[in-house]
Amino acid sequence: MTDSNLAIIVLAAGQGTRMKSATPKLLHKLAGATVISHVLATTRALDAQHVVAVVRHERDRLVEVIEVDLPSAVIVDQDDIPGTGRAVELAVSALPDDFSGDVLVVNGDVPLLDAETLQQLIAAHRRAAASASLLTTLLDDPAGYGRVIRDSDGAVDRIVEHKDATEDELGVREINAGIYIFASASLRDQLPKLDLNNAQSEKYITDVVGLLRSQGELVHALEVAHSWKVEGINDRAQLAAAAGHLNAMIIRGWQLAGVTILDPHSTWIDLQVQLSPDVEIRPGCQLLGASVIETGAIIGPDTTLLDTEVGAGASVKRTDATLSVIGAGASVGPFSYLRPGTYLGDNGKIGTFVETKNARIGVGSKVPHLSYVGDATIGEGSNIGAGTIFANYDGVTKQASVIGSQVRTGSHNVFVAPVSIGDGAYTAAGAVVRKDVPAGALGMSVTPQRNIEGWVETNRPGSAAAEAAKNANNS
Length: 475
Ligand code: UD1
Ligand code: CA
Prior knowledge:
CATH architecture of the largest domain: Alpha-Beta Complex
Number of helices: 10
CATH topology of the largest domain: Spore Coat Polysaccharide Biosynthesis Protein SpsA, Chain A
Number of strands: 35
Bound molecules: uridine-diphosphate-N-acetylglucosamine, calcium ion
Number of domains: 2
Radius of gyration: 32 Å
């Protein structure tokens, strides 16, 4: 149900300089989703009356993501005045004048924040009837964060930014998580008082806390026991740490849902992936994007699947697959490369050192060894000989080939597309197939073999081969 007394402001205008990246900080990914997408998903769960997202740096790229993830959000562009305080000021002015509820402010760079923690903050704030409430946590290494300064009674007095802190204040381990809720009237009263008189010459939203307290207003702090939930992403080390944490949670969730994961430390599973009970994941696997694995399938070791479906009971070893579908009971690998558009039918096989692309391989059909299958359709129950190449590209255009059902092709064939092989046909070893082969025919293109008797003894006299041949012929 929509909380009509709640507005949420998501801060997403910062530059993220510490990432040292051409990609905006909030568009870096963990578990397959951008940092900002995680935060938007969490805010979406609160179903607030109003959501405002503040953007500036790379605004078009951010807006593209926000419009997909949270289309109801109002986009506000931050101006030349820097700082989180300015961002909130502009966002508040985009709220309806008569909005008198609570304003929840969330930094855009806290991807592991969960809706439950936000609900607790909202509830505690409303219970205490505070002017503002904020999430804090204790960190062993609080470097970079704003410190929560409490008075002699233990009440929150103000927040001091790392760069403005005294030696004593730097020793404080309780940090501001960058997540606040304000009574809108109190926030509106204080925002015009923010100035740029600090080490970073920015308007700090954190200064509102000290301003409210100096007016004698109540500020409530809720300490989060699990710090990782509220840690911000500022550099790549923090991004990797958060990604690792999220991955560990995803893996544990699947283990408890009946999936065998032999080595959690070498397994990476994106948030969107769907697994079934009795799937087995062996060490060194990455299951990415919208991959779906059905029950009884064995994945790995050393396999990367992106947006790939694997049917029940299939086995996929040492394989790299993207946008592919692997049928039930099928076998893939070791060392297979499935490029987009590969469909392998039930009980089919793509074997060792085989590359496929835009290829439909029918039920029970096999491409077991050392082959390239591109732009091809193979019917049911066919077998493609070792070392076969589907030559789909003539240097100008790509063309398709069709192999029927119950076909047996010889080793080391080249199918020069476009070409078609009828049902039940055979091709001879080494054939370069340029013309269609009718159903049931044998296609061959290699000249019949001819042996020149005594060639070695004549042309390589005295060699070990000539000696061996002489012995064989004399016996
Ligand atoms: C901020 C807090 C700090 C807190 C920390 C928690 C301030 C002044 N400091 O510091 O007390 O411990 O978060 O992680 O708020 N942003 C804008 N507009 C701006 C600047 C930033 O929208 O002009 C956005 C950023 O995109 C980001 C968020 O605000 O999502 C926080 O900005 P960041 O620069 O990371 O703040 P911190 O220095 O981490
Ligand atoms: Ca930050």
